[in-house]
Amino acid sequence: MPELPEVETIRLGLEKKIVGLEITNIELIRPKTFQGDNKLLQGKKVLNIWRRAKMLGIDLTSDLTLLFHLKMTGQLIFEKGKEKITGGHPTKDMLGPMPNKSTVVIFSFDDGSHLYFNDQRQFGWVKVIPTSRIEAEEKKLLGELGPEPLEKDFTWQVLKDNLLKRKKTPIKVALMDQSLIAGIGNIYTSESLFLARVDPRRLVNTITDEEFKKLHRGILDSLRLSIEKGGSTRAHFVNVDGQKGYFLDFANVYGKDGQACRGCPDKVVKITQAGRGTYFCPDCQK
DNA sequence: CACTTGACCTGTCCGC
DNA sequence: TGCGGACAGGTCAAGT
Q: The FPG-type domain covers which part of the protein (predicted)?
């Protein structure tokens, strides 16, 4: 599920809801998704919420950080436990009552509210790490990660230099590599390559400077538009209130195989690269 | 090194 | 209605 815009949507939601709350209990329904000592979290307060690549961090007092990766189907749903549901609650409307069949961990807070970590496929995880070591040991704690595309210093030259570390890799596959650029996944590679009019099968070392510039623009435009639309919901993604995102209503190619392309008489095509679906318009993307 | 496939899991959808 | 197979916002390890 979540790529950069979806994780960012969750981050923005959590920021408004849980900063300042104190954790009173952690229930591990699927213990293997939780790494570390959950008892350490009792009585700790939420300081702030951050995102790096597709990971979400919740900093707590006592130098503790909860690090989440939601992988394909992870959800973080916040519910004000004391509010009685009387016909028309966004979470209930979308997902039914919490917890549900896919709930893997439940965090409880001192005001009676709860944060539900749901994950149908159980690929996701959350772990406890020391906040103060993240900066110095990012590679060890978060993995090898390329630059954040929405940071100011992410220029088209930075994009080019990083992608060129994999000269003979198809551009679509290179864009998915988190060690080259962080946060971009299957939806936004297809979308940004369409905006740049670049064929996803092209090898990185055949891309011209003009094309790197257009690709840079396409990445920023698709990520920003998606955050504005609350992310992409294909099947599972919802924000912390259980609501879907609407970026896919504005998508050009993702999930549109067999449908007419927006700007030419041709149809959008789906191919497989590195085991994942790629969508593009063979007429527009050269 | 470059690239593909399978594994991790559960659920849904589509064709027979 | 049932069953098998393909497929799903991600990432690893292992194999060619």
A: 252-286
**CATH assignment at residue A98:** 3.20.190.10
Q: Judge whether A277 and A186 are in contact, CB under 8 Å.
A: yes
Nucleotides of C under 7 A from a protein CB: 7-12
Q: Does one domain contain both A103 and A175?
A: no
Q: How many domains does chain A have?
A: 2
Q: pLDDT tens string for chain A (286 positions)?
A: 699 999 999 999 999 999 999 999 999 999 999 999 999 999 999 999 999 999 999 999 999 999 999 999 999 999 997 554 444 444 444 678 999 999 999 999 999 999 999 999 999 999 999 999 999 999 999 999 999 999 999 999 999 999 999 999 999 999 999 999 999 999 999 999 999 999 999 999 999 999 999 999 999 999 999 999 999 999 989 999 999 999 999 999 999 999 999 889 899 999 999 999 999 999 999 9
Å: A167 CA to B2 C1': 10
Same domain, A19 and A127: yes
In chain A, positions 252-281 with C-beta closer than 7 Å to nucleic chain C are 272, 275-277
Residues of A recognised as catalytic:
2-3, 54, 276
CATH number of the CATH domain containing A219: 1.10.8.50
Q: Which nucleotide is nearest to A204 (CA to C1')?
A: B2
Verify that A164 and A105 share a domain, yes or no.
no
In a domain, A149, yes or no: no
